[in-house]
Write a structure and sequence with these properties.
heterodimer; A: about 400 residues; alpha+beta; Nucleotidyltransferase, domain 5; Actin, Chain A, domain 4; 3 domains; 6-stranded mixed beta sheet; 14 helices; about 20% strand; globular; B: about 150 residues; mainly alpha; two-stranded antiparallel ribbon; about 5% strand; elongated; zinc (chain B); zinc ion binding (chain B); zinc-finger (chain B)
């Protein structure tokens, strides 16, 4: 029996698994170097073996969300396919995601690598929002599956808003906002380095700090006013205990004043940083980026779709991607889009309960069962007959 | 004979005021910095690998099937070495009018820009005369002038 393996190839994490698996394996898509270990680079989740996580140096294959360094990317693939998730390419069909509007030359490189280096028998290129759409439409009410939906993919390099009408992307209505997890981490890093202590080299730790302590504000002005107050009236203020690489492996959040006598760990006091950082997703202009925020851009994207589809689009908005894990993002989006959308439409924003990061991956099982699946994929025979360019042109024509 | 003059005006005139162009350049640089993967140098950059480590050639003990030869990572690095900027430029030429990376960018917002103090992050109502950075109170202004203002000019 042929197996089908899906690789959701994100810029930050690779989500990989056979479509029959219960859940995918999440592996960091980067090579990291640590100061303490001179001899070895850490590929993917080998970083768990690294004891000293200070000053981690990242090597990524991606630039602005697109694979530009194949040397790095191939090393990571080699590691994953040999150690973390052994794939027998002779009987496994592959589904792999690529960014929206992927450049032709990157597609070429990807096809060449998978057919030449890994001898795979079949490759299907798709995008994470497409998979998300499959997962969403197939897990809603089976009697009345939604005709249209909007996928908001808040990723590591950027965020995309992708409207789907009857399972097809409306290409002209896709909107991209150049804010993602990486920018948020870097911003938090800069803010903390300026206000408290220099952490410019500590992307790894600050990324964890962002994940642990940031949230999306429901009422920005009220939260700002709250943050102005002094503790204990101030309910936002928290202390973040930094990892010391001996007893504390990962930092954590605590309310001020809970430190016991004799505890000698370093803390950073977080106040308005906790919500002004994710706020950038809603107001990129706060940072001087001249773009709409995700709520406004969603409305803009829906307005670019045919008028008769709009009620369906507003009623089926789905948020996914690693940076949509901030608490409160769903309610805020619901509130903001509601306030901008015409009154006659129902607005419903949903977010996967379990994990927005891996949500798209689960959609691969529905893609694999799609009657069109064989047409969408590139078979080994195709590739050998027509070459890289040939398959790409054929693929584009569909 | 010295003429009477205002000390305040003299002080203000001495101050260097950045023009619009420079301010925009600084803002762009700040945004570019936010895209970086690392702020520090590769910790292994000056590492000299010992020559004593034997380099194993694993082609003998790992014969690949069908005689297909691995091209190695170098091959792909050389063949596909375009930078993001080059790719973008190419895409603009090849796919000038279709929906592409450039057209997908979200348009400018319709809401007015909000301003925040560069020092403490709270809403700000004042602008630094020299560089255009925002601040919220005298204390933050002093911090700003001591640490950031015109310190990184040019």
């Amino acid at each position: 029996m042929e197996k089908i393996c899906c690789i959701d190839n994100g810029a930050c994490n690779i989500k990989i698994g056979n479509i029959t698996d219960e859940k995918p394996l999440v592996i960091p898509n980067c090579i990291m170097k640590a100061k303490s270990e001179k001899r070895r680079p850490f590929i993917g989740n080998q970083i768990d073996e690294c004891r000293d996580i200070s000053g981690i140096f990242y090597i990524l294959g991606f630039t602005k969300g697109y694979i530009t360094n194949w040397e790095v990317q191939k090393n990571i693939y080699d590691y994953i396919f040999s150690t973390e998730f052994p794939v027998n390419f002779s009987d496994t069909k592959l589904i792999i995601t690529e960014p929206l509007f992927n450049f032709p030359i990157i597609q070429e490189a990807m096809i060449e690598i998978f057919f030449e280096e890994y001898d795979c028998i079949s490759l299907t290129k798709t995008t994470a929002p497409d998979l998300c759409q499959y997962q969403y439409t197939n897990t809603q009410d089976p009697d009345e599956p939604p005709l249209c939906c909007v996928v908001i993919d808040v990723g590591y390099s950027f965020s995309h808003i992708v409207p789907f009408v009857k399972g097809k992307k409306v290409l002209s209505a896709i909107r991209r906002i150049d804010i993602g997890g990486k920018l948020l981490t870097n911003h938090l890093k800069e803010v903390i380095s300026y206000r408290f202590l220099n952490v410019m080299d500590e992307s790894f730790v600050i990324n964890q700090m962002k994940e642990d302590s940031c949230f999306v504000s429901q009422d920005f002005n009220a939260d700002m006013a709250m943050a102005k107050k002094k503790y204990p009236e101030n309910k936002t203020i928290r202390e973040y205990v930094l990892p010391d690489c001996t007893t504390i492996r990962r930092g954590y959040l605590q309310t001020p004043g809970t430190a016991k006598k004799g505890d000698d760990y370093q803390v950073i006091r977080l106040n308005n940083e906790r919500f002004t950082v994710p706020e950038l997703l809603f107001h990129p202009s706060d940072l001087g980026i001249n773009q709409m925020g995700i709520a406004e851009a969603t409305v803009d994207a829906i307005n670019a779709c045919p008028e008769e589809t709009r009620p369906h689009l507003y009623a089926n908005i789905i948020v996914m991607g690693g940076s949509s894990k901030f608490p409160g993002i769903r309610n805020r989006l619901q509130k903001d889009i509601r306030s901008m959308a015409p009154e006659i439409f129902t607005v419903s924003v949903s977010i996967p309960d379990d994990d927005p990061l891996t949500y798209a991956w689960y959609g691969s099982q529905f893609l694999a069962n799609d009657p069109e699946f064989d047409n969408l994929s590139i078979s080994r025979q195709d590739y050998e007959e027509n070459g890289v360019r040939g398959v790409l042109n054929e693929n584009d024509a569909q | 004979m010295a003429t009477r003059e205002s000390g305040r005006i003299r002080d203000v005139e001495k101050k260097r005021v950045l023009d619009d162009l420079t301010r925009r350049r600084r803002a762009r640089k700040a945004l570019e910095a936010l895209e970086q993967d690392n702020f520090h140098e590769d910790p292994h950059a000056d590492l000299v690998m010992s020559k004593k480590i034997p380099k194993f050639n694993n082609s003998l003990d790992n014969p690949r099937k069908k005689g297909r030869k691995s091209r190695g990572a170098d091959y792909y690095r050389i063949k596909y070495r375009k930078t993001f900027q080059q790719l973008l430029e190419e895409d603009r030429q090849l796919n000038a009018d279709g929906p592409n990376y450039s057209t997908a960018q979200a348009p400018e917002t319709n809401y007015p820009q909000r301003h925040f103090c560069a020092v403490c992050g709270f809403p700000s109502s004042y602008t630094c005369v020299s560089c255009g950075t925002r601040f919220c109170c005298l204390k933050c202004q002093a911090t700003h002038q001591d640490t950031r203002c015109l310190k990184f000019v040019s």
